[in-house]
Structures are given as structure tokens and as C-alpha cells.
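R.M. (postdoc): so does anyone remember the format we settled on? I'll just put the C-alpha cells first.
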């Protein structure tokens, strides 16, 4: 087993007043040569956005983008003629492919906290696409919920992206112990503890700490306090 530990306080930061952003990997004006990506996971941003504020229309290309609001809601509009509101408990996926433009704003009266994840696609220049789904009921079950899968290996409830990647969200009570089995021996898992306290592969994690693990078949997790966790399994090359 190989692993890399990313404490919460090691993340890059940018505070623009309306936006307080935290970068797990190099992004915008933050660059760390040791934290450019984890396998094919390129971006994990933890953004706090003031009410009424957000990201104006901007382009993306050849990237699989997953947005997860943890608190508040996102008003989304894109060049594919989608207009949507994505609320906490829901997940949004967008394949940028040949190119898409979109905007994202906090349309609620409370601060928006959202995770944005970018994963390199299996191939470039694919057709852009958009989807979203409400997972709030499934997330009440004290276990991992598969929210994103490859198109070739969809679970009953998951959204798909154009990559051999699997994302799971879970809410756990204190004292819960689980084992996560990787889908492929060439994969690694980036485990981001959104909140709580957990022991993961003999590594202690607290709020917003993360650990990337590879060269293993399975990973044990022991939740010491009530916890919310995100697992991102991706090919390592």
C-alpha cells in the first residue's frame, strides 16, 4: 500500500470576499509541484460562496466535472440550454468534451458550500452532456452511496462520466467500521473527510483532511465521530 496524506491546512487558499476557496490540488494562482493531481483526479475545490454571488459564464473543454453542494444551492446555466438549481443532497455532472460554457451562482439566502471535482476523460472531443440527481434519501442509510460511475459500469443509482472512475458519498455514525474494495488494481482512492473524525488505513483524519491510497485491493475505515466522507476512485495513469 502506498499513500499520500493531505492535511486540511496544507490546501491552497484564495479569499476574494465573495468567494473563499480551498484547493486540494494546484489551481488558478495556487501551484504546488507536489500537488498537481492524484492519478486522473485533477481538481478538488472546496468553495464557500456568498448569497447572490458566483462564477460568471466561463468555458470548459475535455474534462469531466462533478459538483456537490454541501450547503445551499447552485443555480446553473449552460450553452447546452440547461438551466437548473442543484441543492444540497444532489449531485451534478457535466462532460465538457468539445467545449461548453456555463455559469454558477448561489441563488439562496445562505452561504453556499460546494465541492467541485475535475477528472480527465477517457478520450477527448466527446459530445458535451449534463445530468443531475437527488441522492438525499440514499445518504440517510449510514453507508457509502455510489454517486458516479463509468458509463460501462453503472450502478442502479449512479450518474455516469466518461472515465473509469467511481465516486462515493457516505454519512456514518460513530463506531461504524467499513471496508472499501477497489474496482481495479491500477486504481487509487482519494479519501476526503468532509467532516468528523476517522481512521483510514492507519491514518487519522479530521475535518477536511484527505489521504490518497494506491497499490492495494481494499481500504479499512473506522469512523470515530459522526462523519461525512467522499471517496474518489480513479485510474492512477
Amino acid at each position: 500500500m502506498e499513500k499520500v496524506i493531505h492535511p486540511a491546512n496544507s490546501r491552497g487558499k484564495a479569499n476574494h470576499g465573495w468567494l473563499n476557496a480551498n484547493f486540494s490540488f494546484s489551481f488558478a494562482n495556487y501551484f504546488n509541484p507536489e500537488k498537481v493531481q492524484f492519478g486522473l483526479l485533477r481538481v478538488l475545490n472546496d468553495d464557500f460562496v456568498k448569497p447572490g454571488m458566483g462564477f460568471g459564464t466561463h468555458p470548459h473543454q475535455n474534462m469531466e466535472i462533478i459538483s456537490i453542494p454541501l450547503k445551499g444551492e447552485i443555480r446553473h446555466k449552460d450553452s447546452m440550454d440547461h438551466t437548473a438549481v442543484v441543492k444540497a443532497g444532489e449531485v451534478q455532472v457535466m462532460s465538457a468534451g468539445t467545449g461548453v460554457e456555463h455559469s454558477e451562482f448561489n441563488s439562496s439566502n445562505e452561504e453556499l458550500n460546494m465541492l467541485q471535482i475535475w477528472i480527465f476523460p477517457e478520450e477527448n472531443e466527446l459530445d458535451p452532456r449534463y445530468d443531475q440527481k437527488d441522492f438525499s434519501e440514499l445518504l440517510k442509510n449510514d453507508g457509502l452511496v455510489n454517486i458516479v460511475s463509468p458509463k460501462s459500469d453503472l450502478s442502479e443509482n449512479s450518474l455516469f462520466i466518461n472515465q473509469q472512475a467511481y465516486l462515493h458519498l457516505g454519512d456514518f455514525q460513530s463506531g461504524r467500521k467499513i471496508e472499501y474494495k477497489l474496482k481495479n488494481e491500477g486504481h487509487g482512492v482519494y479519501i476526503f473527510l468532509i467532516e468528523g473524525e476517522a481512521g483510514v488505513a492507519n491514518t487519522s483524519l479530521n475535518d477536511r483532511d484527505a489521504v490518497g491510497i494506491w497499490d492495494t485491493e481494499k481500504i479499512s475505515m473506522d469512523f470515530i465521530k459522526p462523519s461525512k466522507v467522499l471517496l474518489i476512485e480513479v485510474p492512477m495513469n
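R.M.: ...and that's the designed sequence above, right after the C-alpha cells. Also worth knowing: The chain has one domain: 2-235. The chain has no helices and 22 strands.
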